Amino acid sequence: MVNPPNEQRRNEKSRRAILDASLELCTEKGYAAVTVEGIAARAGVSKKTIYRWWQSKGAVILEAVVDAADASTDFPDTGDIAADLHAQLTQVVRLFEDPRSGRPLRALLLIESHQDPGLAGQIRELLVDSRIATFNQRMRRAQDEGQIVADVDLDVVLDQFYGPIYHRLVLNMDLPDHDYLGKIVDYVLAGITQG
Amino acid sequence: MVNPPNEQRRNEKSRRAILDASLELCTEKGYAAVTVEGIAARAGVSKKTIYRWWQSKGAVILEAVVDAADASTDFPDTGDIAADLHAQLTQVVRLFEDPRSGRPLRALLLIESHQDPGLAGQIRELLVDSRIATFNQRMRRAQDEGQIVADVDLDVVLDQFYGPIYHRLVLNMDLPDHDYLGKIVDYVLAGITQG
Amino acid sequence: MVNPPNEQRRNEKSRRAILDASLELCTEKGYAAVTVEGIAARAGVSKKTIYRWWQSKGAVILEAVVDAADASTDFPDTGDIAADLHAQLTQVVRLFEDPRSGRPLRALLLIESHQDPGLAGQIRELLVDSRIATFNQRMRRAQDEGQIVADVDLDVVLDQFYGPIYHRLVLNMDLPDHDYLGKIVDYVLAGITQG
Amino acid sequence: MVNPPNEQRRNEKSRRAILDASLELCTEKGYAAVTVEGIAARAGVSKKTIYRWWQSKGAVILEAVVDAADASTDFPDTGDIAADLHAQLTQVVRLFEDPRSGRPLRALLLIESHQDPGLAGQIRELLVDSRIATFNQRMRRAQDEGQIVADVDLDVVLDQFYGPIYHRLVLNMDLPDHDYLGKIVDYVLAGITQG
DNA sequence: CCCTAAACGAGACGGTACGTCATGTCTTCGT
DNA sequence: ACGAAGACATGACGTACCGTCTCGTTTAGGG
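^ Those are the sequences you sent over. The predicted structure of the assembly is below.
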């Protein structure tokens, strides 16, 4: 802890093996059964190497998920706010249902971020905040273009669009499908659309 | 599990001590730091006694929470659906913020119910299903009375009312306050109220 | 460490398995290669059980050696002090050469008692002091019977009889054989025998 | 081992720093607490540099001790065998009691030489054999001069003179003082002096 | 007097063992 | 006879060193 390790000398092969192993194990056995020891064994790596670069198994999984999911961060902008929202919500649902990213993502948001405050911050930073920012940008553009009323509280709108997904996530219910998301988008937009 | 223990001979004093100890520990140190050993020590009870009647620390906490919170389950019915919803949502938020029930409740819904499928079922049964049923009953009464349109999908409505709370819960944001809940109720009702 | 464990509830079968395993491993692989983990695995016992009752692998080996060797502690008394000394020294040499007790005994006296002061004290108590006391008793009887001069310094005599064995032990030389011990006894007795 | 390093290019400053650090650490914390990593850190040297020139921490300490102690190897020859023996035994005791050389010397003879056969050989070569040879030379001269009987077994005599020191060393007893050594010399010489 | 091969410091790496903790089961003893 | 006390096997934790292995950087010798 005294000397932070030197990033330059880091062995990229080990890093990859660790991230891959952690996601594999999470998919195979579930998040609870993932252990630092198990990751080390699967990756052919020493435990020390894991602890040198990460603080906990949660931090490993977080990096693995960020690594695997960061391609899909963008919020589409076709000019049609309803279509874009629908596309974006669909993307989010897919992330949670993807066999590779779903389990670890749920574990991070539901389990780790309520056990480990430090990790919770990193999770917010890396997985949540940028998406919220993008959402707000897109919504403000829609306001500028007159598709959405100007004085609406975007925090509430965010909760209304994403709340149903998280509600069902927490209660272990099936996540919204295509039609269901359509209803959500329609209901909410109905309340905040111009004229 | 081989010999299901005899409920009649159960020592009520031990049961109380265990439930009380588990909530105290959870409040003091956080859910992650609660252990069966810790509960046993605090309650002055043998570990065996805990394992005889519960399957895990989660099951103990669940019973403790049910025990402590079941008074407030009822959905008000004043005839004014908006006021009743607001009151009910406020109740829910309070449960999550209460210093005694908040931490264990969040832990059960966010952590345990995604680690232990068996416990997840019990949590739904004891904490969630009855509330959903009551919600549905109240909503249907509102439909009968013509306050709400008849052909609305109540599952979606449920998600819309409770989603924002869960969304903020998962992301560790401040839960909705009185005004915020008012907005939610207004927005959603606006979409499903009889013209 | 807070609560010393309760001796009465101790599992004798585990204790035996641990002591046996430790001597076997020491004989097979040498003292340096004995580990607490190895003993636990061989004995089919948890590490915790070892740490509950002993402080280190050295303490385990000490008890095992004491257990295995305590039959041979007696100093013979036939009335002939030369013969008795020769018999006793032979016994000691045999202990150091015995395939079962030799390696651990050397390790305790040479290695552990110079690394771990606490253990050193126990080793002295259990393996050394009583033998020195018995030696002194026998010598005093020989003095009473007039076989040995009365004013000799018994500490020096002890060193003279046992010193050669330890000298050769430390320097990894062959231990004295029958004849060699005879010479030692003769030489030393020659200096302290009654006129 | 593949490419034996080039002695000529060796950095003498590093060598000195390593030897000094190893003795300092041994004196400060005891032999058991000396580690290659610790020596490297204290000496401001890389572990690789230590492993390039020595095989183990024991080998480092051995060289350090040889370096520090080799001045005092000589066996005095004043013509008076009793006085010379007393002087020599006193020198040996002093080596073992010296605050700088005592701990590492004991560790080498008692601990390492019974854990590491390769090192044991080097220890004998560098620390023991030459002294035994010198002892034998001096004794043979005494025989030539008629001070000691001709047919005595010098191996036994060696054991008799040095045995007491090693005996007390092994058992963690105070080493012989001036008077004590005098008694030893007198007793043993009494048995082998010309009539 | 530069050039180059080496030895060097730094320290990451795969390992092994450490000593501790909590789990869930099993045993003993006191009441 | 119950039940608290707690010993037990299991398995993961996070740490300390081991001895090996790159990395760039001195540094010393032979051309």
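Chain A has a mean pLDDT of 92. Residues 116 and 183 of chain A are 36 Å apart (CA to CA).

Shout if you want it in another format.
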